Amino acid sequence: MRFFLLIATFMLSSSAWCQLNTSRMMDVGKNALYFADYVLSIKYFNAVIMAKPYLYEPYFYRALAKFYLEDFTGAERDCNECIERNPYYPNTYEVRGLSRINLGKYALAAEDYEKATEYQPESHALWHNWVLCNIEMDSLTRADSISDIIVRKWPRHADGYVMKAQIHLAAKDTLLAETFADSALIRDPYNVPSLSFKAAMLLGREEWAAADTVLTEAIRLQPKDSRNVVNRALARYHQNNLRGTMEDYDMAIDIDPTNFIAHYNRGLLRAQVGEDNLAIEDFDFILRIDPNDVMVIYNRAELLFQTGDYRGAIRDYSTLIKQFPNFLAGYAKRAEARRRIGDHRGANSDEEHLLKEQIAHRYGYATATSHMGVKTRKRSDINLDDYQKLVVDDELVEEEQYESEYRGKIQNKEVSVELLAPLSLTDFQEAVIHPIPAFSEALEHLIMGELDAGLTLLNKVVEAQPAFAEAYYNRAYALGRLGRYTEALSDLDRAISLRPNFSQAYYNRAIVRIFMKAPFEDYSADLSKAGELGIYQAYSIMKKNQKK
Fold first, then answer.
1. What is the pTM of this model?
2. How many Cβ atoms from other residues are within 10 Å of residue 220's Cβ?
3. Angle between helices 524-532 and 38-51 (to 10 degrees)
4. What pLDDT band is residue 374 in, cutting at 50, 70 and 90?
5. How far is CA 41 from CA 29, 92, 123, 503, 525, in A?
């Protein structure tokens, strides 16, 4: 393995050799892509693009690698490059369409699928995704006309009827939606999407036993679909089958260890049956993924209080009160917890605040009941009075058509969002004329955390050598650490203009924008470029920050 990597390094470093062996390098890149080593495949496709930038194929395959790394911005950009070189390669439109769907660009994605179906009219998947794009845009008439084509082209297939069922459900015509779902099952009684859709309709009508039966068949046919397992748990819960409910949540978590709904509802169920510490473990897990979920924080606070961890409960109640200053039940609970640990001053303060609010608003407060509610709530609902209610998807029939798994062994959800370290003289990739003593001294100050002293020296370095990209980069680091983000961005812009492939500068420019709470689309291209150039934690930062 080591020998192979050494050869790969040699191959990538020799431009002349690459030009003579681009065909071989394309094959090796495709092989790496096939074995899910997306980072390695990007290296090979980079080398081919550098040697022969007029070829369209390396852009397409690099786009595919980026797509699997969930770098949808970079995948879209590479597809654009591919289409510019060859507009008649239909697979490119499909990959760009999928990338645009993940970026929320449904109108542009629909255009891609329309174009792709011209080249590949017999591709069922292209028509399918074209319909879904129009549903997302609420262009239901257009979606219905396309689904009519699917039904005509494949009259014996269930998929077209499922599409029409989804369209009519979006139009609030549940009766017609269920009619088409039944038509789909007549054509294919083993079609899992049809069964899932039928079950969702039954759940919506609270026909729990019938939904349980349909979902059991769907799970038998496709046991790795965690959404059907979670929905069956809901049906079983409402039939008071707590053992079956718990088994389903355990199964869903085995399939998808990060499944929010399964962890949340299992935590509630564990609390209901008295397994408080296990319930806390579920809520701890969720909060490691999403530390700001207030409903989970409240549930954990209640359980910590019940198990005697009053300091932990106080911490969680304080978090809630900070976000919801008028949350009176939180003050009452925190006061009680504070009194349990002997903090009478803090307890009195909470009770005084509570009394003032009660008088001011002329109403009493009611603490939450100790039993689990029998109703459910949508995951997006944030109502602390509903903290003990089971969670369901906002749409029971929601299809996660485009979600990909962690790929390429480089994703890390716990990656820290911080600036890359300043560069030393040995990090330079090309010879530059620079005032070495001043720069070296500035670098020592930065490493020691003496940011102001380093900044003063770097100002002199930049003034003396205005084309020294690394000086701008290091000064941006100091400015970023000092919270002077606008100035840091200006220096990083300058560094990139001087060195267009300055990977660390792209990465840090993205991080600075994250610190500025910029929207994802403002820095996704920089993360993509940094990843393309070899800073692979950029993909993890992208995974962590983008919204599905």
1. 0.70
2. 11
3. 80
4. low
5. 4, 18, 27, 18, 20
